[in-house]
Amino acid sequence: MAKYLLLKHYRGAPSAVNDVPMDQWTPEEISAHIQYMHDFAARLEQTGEFVDGQALAPEGTFVRYDGEGNPPVTDGPFAETKDLIAGWMVIDVDSYERAVELAGELSAAPGAGGKPIHEWLELRPFLTEPPTITE
């Protein structure tokens, strides 16, 4: 089994087919979208492929270390950044092909007008061992 992270970008990914921003959806469309996500996760829980997933708030802060004895440096919050991750899901599957299959299915969550969004999801494998450095 291999773990993959599915990143759901609200901004920063290529445009979706049904590219109506969520803040322009009706309450019913938002509910249908969230229900699709819940149903998808529940189905993967039944197969043992779901690990975890969460929606994220639009605000975020960049934080970095600023040296011994100094408080961390922050920059933000930035809700208006170019790239905005709306949520994530971790899956544990038998193959890359299965991960691609599930990501494709998840990208069809309904959006405006109840039509599938066909959004681009970023699929990232977990690093299983440190990279080998050769000179």
UniProtKB/TrEMBL annotation:
Residues 20-106 form the YCII-related domain. SUPFAM superfamilies: Dimeric alpha+beta barrel. Gene3D superfamilies: Dimeric alpha+beta barrel. PANTHER family: BLL7171 PROTEIN, BLL7171 PROTEIN-RELATED. Belongs to the YciI family. This is YCII-related domain-containing protein.
